[in-house]
Amino acid sequence: MVTLLQRNPFVHTGLIICFTLLLYGNILSNGWHLDDTGNILHNTPLHLTFLQLDTLFKTFYAHPESTGKLYRPISNFSFALNWFFGKDNPVGYHLVDISIHLLSAIILYLSCIQLLNTPALRRKNYSHIQKKNIALLAAILWLTAPIHTSAVTYIVQRMAQLASLFSVSAIFFYLQTRLTRRNSRVYQLTYLTGFLCCALLALASKENAILLFPSLALIEGIFFLQFAKIQNFAQQKRKIFFLLFLLLSGGILFLSLDIIAAQANSYGHRNFTFQERILTQPRILLFYLSQFFYPTASRLSIAHDITLSTSLFSPWQTLPAIAASIGLIIFGIMCIHKRALLSFAILYYFLNHLVESTIIPLELIFEHRNLLPSLFLFLPLSAFVSDKINEKKWVPVVVTIACTFFLVQSGLATINRNKAWRNTGTLNEDAVKKAPRNARAKLNLAGWYTQQKKYEEAFNLCEKAEKLAEGEASQNTIIPIARMQKGSIAYELGQTEKAAEYFQQAYSLHKSYTAAAEKLIAVLIELTRYDDALRIIAERSILKKDPKLLLLRASVFLRQGNPSEALASYRQAELFYRNLPLVTVGKGKASVMLGKHNEAAKLLNKAAQQNEPMAMLLQIENNLLASRKQEARAQLNQLLRAVPLIRLLNDLNSAGKDPFQIPLNTKLVRQAVLKAALRMSLNLDRQKNVE
Q1: What is the pTM (predicted TM-score) of this model?
Q2: Helix residue ranges per DSSP H, 308-393
Q3: Residue 7: pLDDT above 60?
């Protein structure tokens, strides 16, 4: 085996590839989930129909709820490319996510080899093959950890994946730079360039990548500077200043007192306070660790029943968890000299949880947050296994069996957990079963049941969720979501007025609830309560700058018969959504209503070339109103050859229900479509009679 590895350096890479395909090959048929909808499926700037610099640039600002702000540009850019090549087919997205996880494991493997080459570990005298074997085991254990399914299988968590990929790549290039001999300036410069590029890409993928800088300081302190003596300070000066630079850069960017103060005062929308979050997180961090080292699918879920820590003694696990976390950190610091790998694994884990598991008022627990902090978690375990294999005869056998069992258990748990992610229903049924006291899990499942037309079950889940939230601060978020879900159920049952009441309640309880506001506006438009819809849009515009509100306002103006105001709104929206077909079609419709039929024709032709489905119907409407009967007839014939009549009539009936959609003169177009269909049918009959 050693001879084979020495001759073929790609054997380990091949093993990592095989493990990846074996573990994640079953996710290709999985669907979309939860935040995938807002971040990808309904995130219009990501929906590229052609590749141009301006549209690609707009993806960098594709925040699902606001605009004008740079938002995870590399992650959004990757989603946009996926959309361009495969639209909303999840297979392509899964293939990219699997590839990212695979690449991360390979680079982690290479980084572990480099860590084993650092000055702190030279006294271990590991052979080159031992280093490769230790690194391989560490990478595969990380790869197979079932807790990572929530980052790999959950499409939108590509953001976390890319942050991890580029962070570990930056670490690899940094180690290469540090370990390259000083007389190899070209190589050092190349590696340094690679480090800087990867660091920037990591920061542009997700904000928690900012911890790369203190992580590099940690690497410096443990693996390069731990043997520095006071009398050798002159020789170590350059390294000391480099360490200070890393600490200062990370500290200035992240540990800002203003940011801490702002975050501590922004808990109004959560069902926990700043103090409760700080007290609860140590228990959650230790729970994450238990999920790594006791890997079973039954302990993994998109939702967990977490009892808030309201004091050091309530619940009783709070103080022991805080003590254990502090003890682990102290132990990690104390064993820097004797157990460098163990020290690094512990400190890196806690350090890289600082962004998402401390002061920022995010949800308390999500398993995908562990992808980056856990990168080097298995490295000391792998080194321990390597050391024990060289001891007495029975020790290697026991260690090999234990390691194999752990690896198989992790792999099976990963494969089984991926099955729970098959669709939103299976995922949330699993969550409700494992977290029966979690109201949000019930509401997510209620949403799925509503889609499946299981309205009674969905309504009952909403009722249960509201009861769980009664008397708690969580009513600020849970009860509005429950009311909105009830509104969706009422709407599906044809109870539009009742739906409007529920949506109004949800919006009144939580003014910044975007989904409730959009649902309310949509129903008000359908009920032709246009003034009420414009009032809600105006309120929302004061709360936040969102270009979608401009599209909604324009749509209402078109329905009110106010094309001039609609055109002004579309022109404002065009500043944010350049070349968006919906904006082009809207401007075309406004021009039709203003009687500017030639201008409308140009705009609608442009939209039709962008494959906007409403464009051809509006072209027909424009030609009919402009008395261009020949052009209208040709377009009708073309449309009926491409689209079945029943589907076309259904599309016409449902067109007015989408608040963003451009309103049609449905009666005029339907009559024209039916006449054209009848004419085509008669022509076919005549041809048959002639034959």
Answers
A1: 0.81
A2: 318-334, 340-351, 379-389
A3: no
